[in-house]
Amino acid sequence: MTTTDTHDTHGAPDPGSATRLHMSLAETATAHNYQPLPVVLASGQGAWVTDVDGHRYLDCLAGYSALNFGHGHPRLTAAAQEQLARLTLTSRAFHNDRLGPFCRDLAELAGMDLVLPMNTGAEAVETAIKVARKWGYERKGIAPDRATVIVADGNFHGRTTTIVSFSSDPVARDGFGPFTPGFRTVPYGDSAALEAAVDENTVAVLLEPIQGEAGVLIPPPGYLQAVRDVCTRENVLFIADEIQSGLGRTGTTFACDAEHVTPDIYVLGKALGGGIVPVSAVVSRHDILDVIRPGNHGSTFGGNPLAAAVGHAVVELLRSGEYQARAAELGERLRTRLEDLVGHGAIAVRSRGLWAGIDLDPTLITGRQACMRLLDRGILAKDTHGSTIRLAPPLVIEPAQLDWLCDQLGEVLPRPAG
Question: Which residues are catalytic?
Fold first, then answer.
């Protein structure tokens, strides 16, 4: 799927003049809502990217799973280029010839009936919340303005005002009140606490099957099935935020598939746009999405022909199961290699498919320091919550490249004394 080379030996290069120029421009002209690593990327192919000074790096973040199929996948870029020459935007005031086939095949992939397309993942989460509330009022008979949604502690569903209202991350939340009411938080992975939180006003449970931003936290076995059972018994919608975990990342089409669980609503994004355009979607059944009628919800760019063309090509890539199987097989290889690092600078490893969170010994090294050391060795990774790093390489990564990644990680982690 990609070239078989493992790396370029470029040591720890000093930032070149082009890198310094672009970093200075960004520092001067952009709001400081990110703290990126000191690298300026200019091109990419497969699992590799190249910076403005010609240094190559193995991309082990993959745009937070937006690049599941790697950089410049030929089928995805061809779909985008063909559509660019035809028609890019109509707005939903008119039909376009790419939207129907995309939604039909995405619904089929998810085993659902209907798709409500949007752009970003946060928009899709907001859409799912609106759908759940309206469903609760129209179908469940909840009194107006009383609907509540149960969420999990440690969640990350985006950064809109409503979403940060139920975030437990003070960096995302502090300073942005007043907050939107209607949410109840329970511990992640605790199905008994979730069931106890359900009352007559509960319309939905909104969960990540695996919590990505929290450090690739995997719930205990049986948790998703227990959530499904509670929601079915209490007539509550189960909304699975599969924006990061879905579309092949974990070795199955959806992370919920690991427990053979089907939610009432899938929330999708990131990889759905192939790393080319922002595409997101709420995917569900007729009895749920039919509560949305003309004028209730929309977006100028949601469902545009370019996005639909790329999204359709992504669905086509997933239909054979090749990428899911590849993520599962290589994920076992990754898990085995990472577990060897426990006690050697790492204190815990969690992984599912080609997605891993590695907790480092905070007395030895921070996540940021580890990512900087990896950068010097030609690997791009991302830290979270101080002492954790996340790995999410493109699903097209080769076994030798995966081994090289693990070798380099082992080299940068300091060993405990004694």
Answer: 156, 241, 270
